[in-house]
Amino acid sequence: MSVEHTRGQARILSHRAVADGYKEMSLSWSDAAQAIPKPRPGQFFTLLPILYPTPILRRPFAYSDADKTGFSFIYEIRGPATRDLAKADIGDEIDWIGPLGSTFPHPPEGSRPVLVAGGIGLGPIYYWARFLAETGLKPLVILGARSKNLIPELEWPENLELRICTDDGSMGLHGTALVGLKPSDMASAAFYTCGPHPMMAAVHQSALDSGRPCWVSLEEMMACGVGACQGCAVAVGDGTYKRVCVEGPVFNSREVAW
Questions:
Q1: pLDDT class of 252 with cuts at 50, 70, 90
Q2: Shortest CA distance to 115 belongs to which of 216, 193, 63?
Q3: Between 121 and which of 94, 195, 239, 244 could a Cys-Cys bridge form, CB atoms 3.0 to 4.6 Å apart?
Q4: What is the edge-to-edge ordering of all strands in the sheet holding 6-19?
Q5: At residue 223, what are phi and psi to the nearest 5 degrees?
Q6: Phi and psi of 121, rounded to 5°?
Q7: Among residues 162, 163, 253, which one has the least CA distance to residue 211?
Q8: CA distance 230 to 227
Q9: Residue 136: how many other CB atoms lie within 10 Å
């Protein structure tokens, strides 16, 4: 369920490369943001492109962290808007709207959170892993990437288990993210996943086969980010559609029409 959000001007506090083609940016809160709740893992915000009005549409990004000083996100440089964003300097200001969308639900009693991330799905999973670790849980985090150079350099809490999988075997286990799942992980797992669609579908199927709960954070093109344009609608199991920006981006995986 969505919560109150606001619009403001954020000042860039830090901006660094974390992997080939990926950067992490930290932004300050505006005065207006002090009156709204802190964003929770799974939620997102939108940025107005730096060279507005070209490109004209706002861009959605998932929070990868948030505290009293501001918030952070991890993004891939893959189009005109993110190429311009990658050139931004510390001290520059960016127009943002947030927090938007739904959050990851707390793991059911007696379960162990198993978080699976790939590609640009890392941001919300990183935030959720840190949040869970701070509450005293010990999540299992599985990261998948094509090769070692695409595994971001991040500071992970000690109170979690991290497994890395690469398609070419250059780091960690050799294979897709699903290689990181052991049979012993399944019995009490509560799955959370974000990343490429085939990876999330595979995690969903593993959860379905083992009778365990699973939540997915979907990534779709969002024109407005507030449910008005219907552009990010996805098919769900009952034959209807839901908007990723409002009803999501976090869904029970059994809702989604894979």
A1: very high
A2: 193
A3: 195
A4: 59-62, 44-47, 93-100, 6-19, 22-28, 70-76, 65-66
A5: -85, -40
A6: -75, -5
A7: 253
A8: 6
A9: 7
